[in-house]
Amino acid sequence: MSEGHEIVLSNRQRLVLTGVLHVESFDEDEIILETNMGMLALKGQGLHVLQLNLEDGKLAVEGAIKTLDYLDERAGKHGKGRGRGFWQRLLK
Questions:
Q1: How far is CA 2 from CA 17, 44, 64, in A?
Q2: Gap between the Cα atoms of 13 and 66, Å rounded
Q3: Domain range holding 72?
Q4: How many domains does the chain have?
Q5: 1 located within any domain
Q6: Distance CA 75, CA 40 (A)
Q7: Who's near 67: CB < 8 A, 6+ residues apart?
Q8: What CATH number corresponds to the domain at position 55?
Q9: HEC-encoded secondary structure of 32-47
Q10: Is position 49 within any domain?
Q11: Is residue 48 part of a domain?
Q12: Partners of residue 33 on adjacent β-strands
């Protein structure tokens, strides 16, 4: 698996991520996954997983991509969720 983490977004319709460790959950409106840079929530409409290869750490998604949001403290020193648990931030 690659050690890097990369996000490539094309026309807000196709997203390719590297550094993916685990997919926590997914549906047509939200995908929650763990990357080597922290938990990431991908929100949109009509989201479809085109490719998932955890051995290579790669995920490809297609759909109307609205937001990408890192959910843990790695996102920044003064991040919104600092000091709260993953589920507390997710269910706010």
A1: 11, 26, 27
A2: 9
A3: 6-90
A4: 1
A5: no
A6: 9
A7: 41, 42, 43, 44
A8: 2.60.40.2000
A9: EEEECCEEEEEEEEEE
A10: yes
A11: yes
A12: 23, 40
Contacts (Cβ under 8 Å, ≥6 apart) of 39: 24, 32, 33, 70, 71, 72, 86
Backbone φ and ψ for 88, nearest 5 degrees, come out as: -60, -45
Model's pTM, two decimal places? Answer: 0.74
* 38, two tokens: 């922290």
Instruction: Assess if residue 46 is contained within a domain.
Output: yes
Residue 81 to residues 4, 7, 16, 45, 70, Cα–Cα distance (Å): 24, 21, 25, 24, 9
Cβ atoms of 47 and 67 within 8 Å: the answer is no
pLDDT along the chain (92 residues), means of 10: 85 97 95 94 97 96 97 56 59 64
